[in-house]
TrEMBL record:
Highest taxon listed in the record's lineage: Bacteria
Protein source organism: Bacillus badius
Keywords on record: Oxidoreductase, Peroxidase
Protein family membership: Belongs to the glutathione peroxidase family.
Descriptive protein name: Glutathione peroxidase
Gene3D superfamilies, alphabetized: Glutaredoxin (3.40.30.10)
GO MF entries: peroxidase activity
InterPro entries reported in the protein's UniProt record: Glutathione_peroxidase, GPX_AS, GPX_CS, Thioredoxin-like_sf
Record carries keyword DNA repair: no
Amino acid sequence: MDIHQFTAKKRNGETIRLEHYKGKILLIVNTASKCAFTPQFEDLQRLYIRYQDAGLEILGFPCNQFGSQEPGSNEEAAEFCQLNYGVTFPIFSKIEVNGEQADPLFKYLQEAAPFRGFNEKNIHEKLLKMMIADKNPEWLIGDSIKWNFTKFLITPDGAVAQRFEPSDTFSSIEQEIERLLA
């Protein structure tokens, strides 16, 4: 199984088959516009500009499951990204990434790339773990997505190469993108 077998809904409700991206490196991200990690849109857009012509596509999936940080409509989520961060990569319809209503793509991504655990030496991860323990302790268990801006790097043939947590550096993501492009 690979991600090309899944579909996604564009923000206008139209369904697209992810096989449309076959042959490209993908970075799939669950996003939110009112999150402490929201400025990562700048880094995501920078990566997109730098590597799009080489075969990178970034797919953003707004999600309101984490602290209700994406409360608006599909269109409002996309407009926020474009107006505030100049985002030109696709922003899809809002989805859920955890629980019974989780999008099948994100269920698959979690199975294919399990959670590596929290790095207690990283202050951002330590604080994130404390916040999750307070607000959504059920997400501390297993491979669920822990917060907004979890990223999954996908190979051109649709395999999940790596999972990046919200606190992972963009230099580490960029190194892995370059490794796949080589």
